[in-house]
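Hey L., structure's done. Input below.
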Amino acid sequence: MINEMLMFARGPLFVFCSTLMVLGIIRLVVILVINIHGSIKNAGCSDITYRDTVRETAIWMLPLRRLFNTSPVFSTVSFLFHVGVIVVPLFLLEHVLLLENGTGIRLWNIPGNVADTLTGMVLITGCILLLYRIMKRSGRGISSFSHYFILVIILTVFASGYVAASPYNPISYTGMMLCHVLAGNLLLVLIPFSRLSHAIVYPFIRLVTLSGWCFPYGGGKKANNKIFGSEQIEI
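Output:
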């Protein structure tokens, strides 16, 4: 029974979740581009330097020089967590082969020992971030249910995948892999519809900020609500 469930989760369910993620990302990007273009046009912006915007966005995507400016420990832990969360799912050999079998696209893969090290780093830094949000008053103040929920799901994905490949697996390989695949599929679905979408929205943030200076007082907030929505899905 578990074997059949794992095959379904790896097969049709994975294809469905992946397709939903891709379509959701395309929808999000199209809406952002259309709304940003309309906002810039309505604001009458003519002096936005797009080359500098792209350069500044790339610099902010690797904020190594700014890690120690404020909250250096939290910033470093968060940065290391994000590095592992991005690199391992994309370049783990098993995931690369899965992508190649489904699409014919072959990505470069990281060595197994590097993947294990990054996975351990994600688990350690993820637990630190979770404890920070639970134990610190300032952490609780900026945290909502979605912060805890998504962080727990990410830790579940990495922990179950690591334990499944370990010789010290407390339960069957199939059972642990089922947990891993189901949690991973859930993350795929959540990416375009939750705060995880910040990974897609981020490249547009600098452009939105620059266009906001072209609006009269109070207009920037209206433009922001139009582009990103006045309400955010709390998942």
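Residues 230-235 have pLDDT under 50 and may be disordered. The CA atoms of residues 62 and 119 lie 20 Å apart.

-- N.
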